[in-house]
From TrEMBL, chain A:
Calcineurin-like phosphoesterase domain mapped to chain residues: 6-203
Pfam families associated with the record: Metallophos
Annotated GO MF terms: exonuclease activity
Keyword Nuclease among UniProt keywords: yes
Transmembrane segments: none
Name this polypeptide is given: DNA repair exonuclease
Plastid recorded as keyword: no
Organism, as annotated: Aquibacillus halophilus
InterPro entries the record matches: Calcineurin-like_PHP (IPR004843), DNA_Repair-Maintenance_Comp (IPR050535), Metallo-depent_PP-like (IPR029052), Mre11_N (IPR041796), Pesterase_YhaO (IPR014576)
Keywords (A to Z) from UniProt: Exonuclease, Hydrolase, Nuclease
From TrEMBL, chain B:
Transmembrane segments: 468-487, 493-511
Pfam families the record matches: AAA_27
PANTHER family (UniProt xref): DOUBLE-STRAND BREAK REPAIR RAD50 ATPASE, PUTATIVE-RELATED
InterPro entries: P-loop_NTPase, YhaN_AAA
Coiled coil (residue ranges): 179-233, 627-654, 772-813
Name of the protein described by the UniProt record: AAA family ATPase
Domain YhaN AAA: 1-205
Keyword terms of this UniProt record: Coiled coil, Membrane, Transmembrane, Transmembrane helix
Database matches in Gene3D superfamilies: P-loop containing nucleotide triphosphate hydrolases
Lineage of producing organism: Bacteria, Bacillati, Bacillota, Bacilli, Bacillales
Keyword Transmembrane helix: yes
Length: 409, 987
């Protein structure tokens, strides 16, 4: 029937886009962070060449239009040239971050690059050995938001070849992210496509297997929310057979690490415990940015936390753990239990603490409290107001802080 | 709540210890230092609130054995129960045993404590000497604030927390500061942002640079093209300078060439061909001119002859006139014969008419017409006249007979009329007879009517009687009913009785009415009186006889009048017949008159002879006709002769041929001679005409021979588009000169084309050659321009390579990327700092708000209670405590009404105030579920009397809430020996 084709499906490269939730990293880590998205791109190109794929699908958000750097465009261009030397085609659709109208640099990509430059669905034929073996369908975001169900516009031609759809958008039921180009799984399975290459959701997931409907996730995690391995899918289609294999591309990973400090009676003990766990972890999985989740059955942790010892421990570990390729960096920690007091019981009391805790239950207008900072000339420009989530966190931490301070002996 | 006893399984130094507080409100536990007072206190707290495992470990019995114990308490709400905790059972959670056997768990215990946990219990329900010591270390200005805090939480933590938060906040951020971390970070980020924007602008210039690169490249290409073009132009001008003389000649020749007309119109070798034709044509032309002379001579001779000769019409006419002269003689003879015959017929007729003697003359015959029907008419008239006469005779006799009969019948009728009576009388008789008959009939009807009336009167009386019975019965019944209704007060019955009465009355009225109406009908029939006219019958019979006679007379008269009528009609018929014949007679006479009017001579002849006269007259008319025919023939011949004479005279006169007056015959002869002379002239003309035709033939022959030459000449002229020889020859010469010029130009072309090229030659041909000096100047200019362009290209190349290297540099530059990442990291750091600040800020604000609420809601009660205890403790020296107001710290008032700020009080007094506050607070906070109050060596600084007072007060306080006092002062025993409410436990 049809010739075998193989390709790489990736999305959301976010080249050279900044990292979230990191501060005060060493120069070494800073450089690694900064180059990580390009490293992932290089790995992708090397993988494509090694696997001798027919083409590469890049389903949107190659870079961030608003933060687009010349470097990102040049590096991308070089990557395409490299693929071109190996006669590997590249199909690109642009998403909500690299929407067409927001582009700052225009470059002449080599001939192997096929851009979907319209918001309505078009297709490119892919030719192999002189005949068309696949049609690749896609569209690009013209503006930041596409709110129509674009999947309805994907209609395969009647040809007896592979039909592959490139769709940057999200399931209409998935409200965790900004919902763009929303679709329902039925919309995709109803169409006679052989592979659905999705993009936009940074978490890797295979929504359906026959045909494959796949989010490859992004190629490099950029915040603690984007933990684990990140990379692309290597896909082979042949006579109704399909295979899908994940290849990690990330230079560094974000990981959560749980540490039980119950046995630590002294801060020093905790320090060596954490250091051991963190370096073991990074030796195993490579350079890692760690978010610690500390728990203990003693009240030590809370006291150390409130006393600032935990911050000191982490600074110390971060400074001493730099030399290896598989470095580890602890970005933050959180405590499983923040206070030793029983808030629920206290809340019932007629005493001051009870009143204080009840006060937290009332509508607390944080915005009003933080006005002195937010009205500050410089801060006004640089700071956004706290999100609902942040406000909750602030309230909780404030509550813990007060309880600790008021009850400490 | 009251602690009754403790059974310690193992806790620190305590093991298998049984303590019983004897259900006392004030428990004093006294012992030396290290005697285990504090451990015991911890044990009690442990029993209430439990301890985390680590801390529990700390209190493991030194000698081994299980850690834990029991504590029996009694509360107002739940009565007596025992709390048991064992370290390794249920993670040290409590079980509460009730006397009735029910067991409750830790959760129940916690709920019973209503919001008090270990920490809050510590701060509210217990204090020790340390707390007091802390109070002593405070600076004076802090004291008020700390005491306020103690009034709220039982400790100085609010004050400390506030201080701590303020410190942190100030370290993190100050709105106007520079040093705090957030301020520093803000400045740092602003700096980075500035740098980032600059780099962004630089990166954005990449596009400009790139388009600059393209523009320069394009400019270089354009300049190079310009250079090539200029060089080419230079070469071309230099060539021009070389061939300058030739160009001048070429231009000159070309200019001349334009002066000549287009030679294409002139035939090839036209002039030579023309000359040759002319040589051939010349001899033929001279021969033709000789013939032309002869022609003119003959034509003039012919012209003079033709002037003398008549034209053919005149000549023919003359011959005709001459021919007629012969008819003229013949007609003269015929006329004479006709005249003789006419005269003989005239004589014969005159004789016949005279014999007839009816007055008809010879001349009358001319107008007499006798058509065939005249004879018929005349015969008919004769017969009709005789028949009419006979008819009239017969009618006259019949008429006389009828008139006689009429007279007879008329007389008879008059006789009958005299016997008739008048019509009126007859009518009168008839009336009388009929009246008599009617009277007889009426009498019979009247008798029947009287019978009927008698019958009805009888019936009517009966009906009246019945009706009267009904009215009597009805009225009675109605009255009875009415009375009953009135008595029984039944309205409906009353109404019914009235209705019944009314009904009865109506019935009576209806019957009376009906009788009256019938009576009226019968009343009308009057009886008819009967008469008896016996004598009248006789009179009637007479009248009837008279009437019958009159009828007979009338019948007879009617028949007589019918006869009279018949006869009268017969008379009229005969009269009409007579009248008819009279009319017929008149009509006949009219027809006779008509004939006599036409033929007047008939008047002289009786009608019976008219047919005979007709025959005689018709013969005479035939002879007259012959006579008049001859007469007209003679007239005709005379006319012919006259006509001819007039014709010949007219002809001669018209053609002016007459010379003198001659008789008619001479005139004819003269005409004959003239005709002969004309015939001679015609012969001469014929001769000359023949000669002239011969000359014409020769001329035509010559023209035919010359024609080819003329055609050839016309052809040549036509080709040259000229109309005459002069122009033709001029054109011929023109062409020759032009061909000469063209061959020269062609020669020059052969020389120049290799140098200038085909197009260059064309340009040179069209334009005036430049001056050599101008050309040399132009070459100099171009050379200079080329130098400039070359320099410019060099410049552009340099700029291009600069731009290119700049672009490569930009492409490899990572500054923007680095700063961008930096910016975001710093931004995140700023965020974490601001979050820290926000946490502290929120903490502080909420703390302040809670303080405010507490001050408003609880503090007044606490202070009130404090005042009470303070008064007690100070033995009435101080009577009031005031909570802080508007900047003033807490104040107290002594028994003299003087107020002091707390920092003005002595240490001991402050201690007393502190204790008062603590006790008051614990009382307010936990009113319903009073927990025991722990006091640990709090009175070390008190003198004996004060301590004694203190004990006394505590004893008093203990009535509200159990107080457990831990002390190392054995002296206390003295103060409580006799107190029954006090349990003293010496360790």
């Amino acid at each position: 029937m049809n010739d075998k084709i193989s390709f790489i499906h990736c999305a959301d490269l976010h080249l050279d886009s900044p990292f979230i939730g990191l501060s005060h990293v060493s120069d070494r880590i800073f450089t690694d962070l900064r180059k990580s998205t390009f490293n992932a791109l290089n790995s992708l190109v090397n993988l494509a060449i090694e696997k001798k794929v027919d083409f590469v699908l890049m389903v949107g958000d190659l870079f961030d239009s608003e933060q687009q750097s010349l470097k990102a465009v040049i590096r991308l261009q070089k990557a395409f040239e490299q693929l071109n030397k190996h006669n590997i085609q590249v199909y690109i659709s642009f998403g909500n971050h690299d929407f067409l109208d927001g582009r700052q640099f225009d470059f002449n990509y080599p001939d192997n690059v096929h851009l979907f430059e319209e918001e309505s669905v078009r297709h490119f034929p892919f030719n192999k050995n002189g005949k068309t073996v696949a049609n690749i369908y896609g569209f690009s975001y013209k503006q930041r938001a596409v709110t129509d169900n674009k999947s309805l516009e994907f209609n395969p031609t009647g040809e007896d070849i592979y039909h592959i759809g490139m769709l940057h958008g999200s399931l209409s039921s998935n409200t965790d992210h900004d919902v763009y180009a929303p679709f329902q799984l039925n919309d995709l399975t109803n169409k006679n496509f052989d592979y659905w290459a999705l993009g936009h959701i940074h978490k890797r997931q295979v929504l359906r297997e026959n045909p494959y409907i796949v989010y490859p996730g992004n190629t490099q995690g950029r915040s603690s929310k984007e933990s684990g391995e990140k990379g692309c899918y290597f896909v082979e289609l042949e006579n109704g057979q399909q295979s899908l294999e994940f290849y990690p591309l990330q230079r560094l990973r974000f990981e959560d690490l749980e540490v039980d400090a119950s046995l630590c009676e002294q801060p020093q003990q905790l320090e060596s415990l954490i250091e051991e766990m963190v370096s073991n972890n990074s030796n195993k999985i490579g350079a890692t940015i760690v978010t610690l989740l500390l728990s203990s059955n003693s009240s030590n942790l809370v006291e150390w936390h409130q006393a600032g010892f935990l911050d000191d421990i982490i600074d110390y570990i971060n400074e001493s753990n730099l030399d290896t390729e598989s470095w580890a960096f602890i970005r933050s920690y959180s405590l499983e239990k923040q206070t030793k007091a029983d808030k629920l019981e206290l809340k019932k009391g007629q005493h001051f603490l009870g009143e204080l805790l009840r006060q937290f239950e009332n509508q607390v207008d944080i915005e009003e409290y933080v006005e002195p900072l937010m009205q500050h000339r410089q801060a006004r420009k640089l700071l956004k107001s706290f999100t609902e989530e942040e406000q909750q966190q602030i309230l909780k931490e404030a509550e813990d802080l007060l309880l600790y301070q008021l009850l400490k002996e | 709540m009251k602690i009754l006893s403790a059974n310690i399984y193992g806790f620190g130094k305590w093991q298998d210890e049984q303590l019983n507080f004897g259900d006392k409100q004030l428990v004093i536990i006294s012992g030396e230092n290290e005697s285990g007072k504090s451990t015991l206190r911890q044990y009690m707290l442990f029993m209430f609130f439990g301890l985390p495992p680590k801390k529990r470990e700390f209190y493991f019995p030194k000698t081994g054995g299980k850690m834990g114990g029991r504590l029996t308490v009694s509360t107002q709400t739940h009565g007596e129960f025992t709390i048991e905790r064992i370290h390794d059972r249920n993670n040290g959670e409590a079980e509460c045993f009730f006397p009735d056997g029910t067991i409750e768990n830790e959760k129940w215990l916690k709920e019973s404590m209503t919001g008090i946990d270990y920490s809050s219990f510590q701060s509210i329900f217990s204090f020790d000497s340390n707390d007091l010591n802390k109070l002593h270390t405070l600076k004076a200005d802090q004291l008020g604030e700390v005491l306020l805090g103690i009034g709220m939480t039982g400790s100085d933590q609010i004050y400390k927390t506030e201080k701590h938060l303020d410190n942190q906040l100030n370290q993190l951020f100050k709105p106007q500061g520079k040093k705090p971390e957030v301020n520093e970070q803000l400045m740092k980020i602003e700096e980075i942002n500035k740098q980032l924007n600059e780099l962004k602008v630089e990166e954005n210039s990449y596009h400009e640079k790139q388009s600059l690169k393209e523009i320069i490249s394009e400019e270089i290409v354009n300049l190079q093209q310009e250079l090539a073009a200029s060089r080419k132009k230079q070469t071309s001008i230099e060539t021009k300078i070389q061939v300058s003389p030739l160009l001048t000649e070429l231009h000159h020749a070309n200019q001349q060439l334009f002066q000549y007309e287009d030679p294409s119109e002139f035939p090839e070798n036209g002039v030579e061909r023309y000359q040759h034709i002319k040589e051939q044509l010349l001899p033929l032309q001279s021969e033709y001119s000789v013939l032309h002379d002869n022609e003119q001579k003959y034509e003039s001779e012919l012209g003079s002859l033709k002037k003398q000769v008549w034209d053919s019409e005149l000549f023919n006419k003359a011959n005709v006139v001459l021919e007629r002269a012969r008819n003229y003689n013949h007609s003269g003879n015929e006329m004479e014969y006709h005249i003789t015959e006419k005269d003989s017929i005239a004589r014969e007729l005159t004789k016949d008419l005279e014999q007839l003697q009816v007055g008809v003359e010879l001349e009358d015959l001319r107008d007499l017409k006798l058509p065939f029907h005249v004879e018929e008419e005349w015969n008919q008239l004769k017969q009709e006249k005789s028949q009419l006469f006979m008819e009239l005779e017969k009618v006259d006799s019949e008429l006389k007979s009828i008139l006689h009969q009429i007279k007879h019948v008329g007389d008879r009728n008059e006789h009958i009329k005299a016997k008739l009576v008048s019509q009126e009388k007859i009518d009168q008789y008839n009336q009388k007879v009929s009246d008599y008959d009617n009277q007889t009939k009426a009498q019979m009807f009247n008798e029947f009517n009287i019978d009927q009336k008698r019958k009805w009167q009888k019936e009517s009386k009966e009906r009246d009687k019945r009706s009267n019975i009904v009215i009597a019965v009805g009225s009675l019944f109605s009255i009875a009913l009415g009375a009953f209704a009135f008595v029984a007060e039944i309205d409906s019955l009353l109404i019914a009785s009235i209705l019944l009465f009314v009904g009865v009355v109506i019935q009576k009225l209806v019957v009376a009415q009906s009788n009256r109406r019938t009576e009226k009908i019968f009343g009308k029939t009057d009886t008819v009186t009967r008469s008896q006219p016996k004598q009248e019958e006789i009179h009637i019979k007479e009248m009837k006889q008279t009437l019958s006679d009159q009828q007979t007379f009338q019948y007879e008269l009617k028949n007589g009048e019918a006869d009279y009528q018949k006869l009268y009609i017969e008379q009229i018929k005969l009269e009409e017949k007579e009248h008819f014949y009279r009319i017929k007679q008149k009509r006949l006479e009219k027809r006779v008159n008509e004939q006599t009017d036409i033929f007047s001579f008939l008047n002289l002849v009786h009608i019976d002879y008219w047919p005979k006269l007709y025959h005689i007259l018709s013969n005479s008319v035939l002879k007259w006709n012959k006579y008049s025919h001859l007469e007209s023939e003679i007239e005709k011949l005379q006319l012919t002769l006259n006509h001819y004479e007039e014709e010949i005279v007219l002809f001669l006169e018209e053609n002016q041929l007459i010379v003198e007056e001659l008789p008619i015959n001479e005139k004819v002869n003269h005409l004959k001679r003239l005709i002969e002379k004309q015939m001679g002239l015609n012969n001469n003309i014929e001769q000359y005409t023949k000669w002239l035709n011969e000359v014409y033939d020769l001329q035509r022959n010559l023209i035919l021979r010359m024609k080819p030459y003329h055609e050839e000449i016309a052809n040549l002229w036509n080709l040259a588009r000229v109309e005459d020889e002069e122009v033709f020859l001029k054109k011929g010469n023109n062409k020759k000169s032009r061909e000469k010029l063209e061959s020269r130009i062609s020669e020059i072309k052969d020389q120049l084309t290799p140098l200038l090229g085909e197009s260059g030659f064309k340009i040179a041909l069209a334009s005036k050659p430049d001056e050599k000096e101008d050309l040399l100047q132009e070459v100099r200019d171009i050379k200079q321009y080329i130098d400039e362009v070359e320099a410019s290209i060099e410049d552009k190349r340099q700029s291009l390579s600069d731009v290119k290297s700049l672009l490569v540099k930009m492409e490899n530059k990572e500054d923007y990327s680095i700063v961008k990442h930096q910016f975001h990291l710093e931004q995140d750091y700023l965020k974490s700092l601001t979050k820290q600040w926000a946490i502290h800020q929120v903490s502080k604000q909420i703390l302040l708000e809670t303080k405010q609420i507490f001050q408003n809601n609880y503090l007044p009660k606490v202070i009130e209670s404090t005042s009470y205890y303070f008064n007690l403790l100070t033995g009435g020296r101080y009577i009031n405590v005031f909570s802080p107001k508007s900047g003033n710290p807490m104040q107290v008032e002594n028994n003299l009404g003087i107020r002091f700020n707390v920092n003005q009080l002595s240490q001991g007094t402050n201690d007393q105030l502190y204790i008062s506050l603590r006790i008051a607070l614990s009382e307010i906070v936990n009113k319903q579920y009073k927990l025991p109050f722990f006091i640990d060596d709090a009175f070390v600084h008190f003198d004996k009397s004060r301590t004694k007072e203190m004990i006394r007060i505590l004893n008093k306080l203990a009535t509200n809430q159990q107080i457990i006092l831990f002390t190392c002062q054995d002296s206390l025993q003295l103060y409580v020996e006799n107190e029954k409410n006090v349990h003293l436990q010496v360790l």
